[in-house]
Amino acid sequence: MPNDSSQDSPLLELIPTDLRTPAQVPRWYKGKKSDTYKLLRDPMDLGELNSFGKLMAIWREENETLTYVTPRGFCHYPDVKERVLSLVYQENDALVLSIGGKTARGIAQTLAYFMSLEKKKPTQEKSRLLFKIFKPYFNFSLVPTHSLTQAIEMAPSRILNFQNIYLSAEQSIVLTTRPHSMHLQFEGTCRFADDGKAFVDALEARSFSFGSLALRGTVPFHNIHLKRLFQVSTIDHLDLRCVTIDLGFLPFAARVNHLEYRIASSLLLKADLRPLKIAANKLTIVICHETNTFPSKPIAAFLRRLGDLGHFVELRIKFQFNDSTVDIPDYVAHELVLTVLANRKLRILDLSGRDNRLNWGPRMKILLNGVKTHKELCTIKVDVREGAFGKNYVYLRKLLNNNRNITVTDGEDKLYSNGTSIDELYSLNVLSKLCGMHG
Known about the structure:
Layout: E1 12-14, E2 35-39, H1 46-50, E3 56-60, E4 65-70, E5 84-90, E6 95-101, H2 104-115, E7 128-133, E8 138-139, H3 145-154, E9 159-163, E10 165-167, H4 169-176, E11 182-189, E12 191-192, H5 197-205, E13 211-218, H6 223-229, E14 235-242, E15 258-264, H7 265-270, E16 282-288, H8 296-309, E17 314-320, E18 326-327, H9 330-342, E19 348-350, E20 358-359, H10 364-370, E21 379-381, H11 394-402, E22 407-409, H12 421-438
Parallel strand pairs: 2-3, 7-9, 8-10, 9-11, 10-12, 11-13, 13-14, 14-15, 15-16, 16-17, 17-19, 18-20, 19-21, 21-22
Antiparallel strand pairs: 1-2, 3-4, 4-6, 5-6, 5-7
């Protein structure tokens, strides 16, 4: 391929349909059609590929790879039967490059080539870069380490998401030794060549905040290194949505600022929760339950323990049931109120989640009346119907009259209001806060 990168010269050469080999024919999901091209020169940057504004495929003879190009505004992707590694830029200039080929090495070389074309920093505050494959996993260790380093340095605050990816020890060190906070997500069946030893070694040696780490799917760490991970004190946010391993109560001891964890109610049922220690001061807990009856006793016991600990500043409590919508019992709602009051520094109580199938509506009177004297609580999030606040929003009105600091929203931060008197109360409360600040 000529190395002329002048923008005035053509970038693409069409491969006529009747001259394409089987390897050069793109196989899009649901039979979508597109042309196949060769590159006549190096693109100026990824934006030049995006500028064509259409689905297309690019054949690279030197690697024997076919890259499916999905530009901004399109949602098409290759047939799931195809073995392709996708490079997904989720930002203002969204672009998906899905690479298929004869060999993993050829795919890795093509991936590195396209990664080198990222020349502009993302303008979106929270952008994401995904590396994913649908088949068991891709040997990402074939990708040069400097390509990963370049992607990180291009946008240090960007979320890096790995799905079904195998990483070398050297690459894991690159991820954990940057001089800034990182935001890493591992999904599906991700693996480290050394079972995560180098990753944890680097975190243990780190003296400043790492940022956030999410493990969703198969845990890529050996149990020995996982236990070490929970003792690392530099992780700010640890998100564990593990589906293939029962970690029990071990993650609660993780020395992090914010712990997000999914646990089965059956585990709570069998356990003595009195000795339970939770290090995080921000806790998001998702309690999964397999039957359609509310597990009152274990949930009440767990809430009681959260109250005994009393150090939380944010509590997010979610439930997942199989099918039906379940009402929360009265006494569990009362137990939740006691938990909130016992955590005197609590600022956020989040019970939202439209898919959690738990109906808080009938218990809003208990909840709002119960927490109205809490001095620090400033946000309650819950997804309920408007009727849950009583006639003319009476329960919410009483809360706002008693507590000048608080707002009540749904899970998308939309204020609950009847549009008149409640809006006035919110406005008065805002004015009261401003006067208090300057008084």
